[in-house]
Amino acid sequence: MRRRPVTYSLLAVLALVFGFLIAVQVRAQFQLAPPGQVARTEALIRSAQDLERTNQDYRDRIAQLRAQISALEAAAAQRSDADRALADQLAALRALAGLTSLRGPGVTVTLTDGQPSRETLPDNLGYRITFEDVQDLVDLLYAAGAEAVSVNGRRITPLSGFRGDGVDVLIDQGPPIDSPFKVQAIGDQSLLERALDDPNALPDVRLRVERFQLGYSWAAASDLLLPPYDSSLALDFAHAP
Predict the structure, then answer these.
(1) How far apart are CA 126 and CA 51, in angstroms?
(2) Cα–Cα distance between 122 and 6 in angstroms, integer?
(3) CA 219 to CA 108: how far, in whole Å?
(4) Residue 183 burial (C-beta neighbours within 10 Å; 0-12, 13-18, 19+)
(5) What sign for the dihedral angle of Cα 150, 152, 153, 158?
């Protein structure tokens, strides 16, 4: 009879322990997160959402910057084309003004003084090459399409002036030059030679060639190098005394 109370006691203890274990398991399965952990989770979610919004703002800004960069590159390309066109135009103008050296095919023309005849009066200098002769020759070459002309190594420009000082020839502010005169012109050789061979061109020179044996000859040149203009481009004006 004493064993039955002990058995009941053991069964009660076992039931209690079993019930406690079941309660712990059920609570473990259905227990909600502590309030502090929920707050941290919500804060992390909000931070992630804020970060996503910030990243989206950055992506939108980057897209705007890329569009601006593309527009600037397109504008720069247009400016580059305009700059190149202006540079080409400036180079052409500098070449026309003779400010740069020029190389190419052309002709070399030689003018030399002739011989005075026995009938020539002392003051008759028709056998000498004058500045008008040199100027007429230069004008003829330009009219025939010459791109550049030089006289005795001195570059001629559209503003160049010719004048005489006795028997000497003065070009712009350069030193006096005298016979022989070597006039070089770059351009289409066939056109230049045709102009030089024209019997109607340079009538005064041709007449004096026969009368005073002036030297007038030319030769084609495959490669001429003309120097740049080395004087002032300023125009000289007459002033009242």
Answers:
(1) 99
(2) 170
(3) 5
(4) buried
(5) negative
As a whole number of angstroms, the distance between CA 51 and CA 53 comes to 5
In tens, the pLDDT along 94-145 reads 777 778 899 999 999 999 999 887 665 555 678 999 999 999 999 999 999 9
Band the pLDDT of 193: cuts 50, 70, 90: very high
* 28 token code pair: 């473990």
Structure tokens at 229: 């203009």
What is the DSSP code string of 162-200? EEEETTEEEETTSPPB-SSEEEEEES-HHHHHHHHH-TT
Q: How far are the Cα atoms of 5, 131, 136, 153 from residue 230, in angstroms, in the given order? A: 136, 19, 22, 11
Sorting pLDDT into bands at 50, 70 and 90, what band is 235? Answer: very low
- Residue 93: pLDDT over 50: yes
To the nearest whole number, what is the mean pLDDT of the chain? 80
C-alpha pair distances (Å), 204 with each of 49, 126, 163, 184, 208 = 98, 10, 18, 21, 6
Residue 130 φ/ψ region, left for φ over 0, alpha for ψ in the -120 to 50 degree band, beta for the rest: beta
Whether the upstream peptide bond of residue 180 has omega within 30° of 0, thus cis, is yes
**Cα torsion 111, 113, 119, 120: sign:** positive
Residue 2 pLDDT exceeds 50 = no
pLDDT at 1: 47
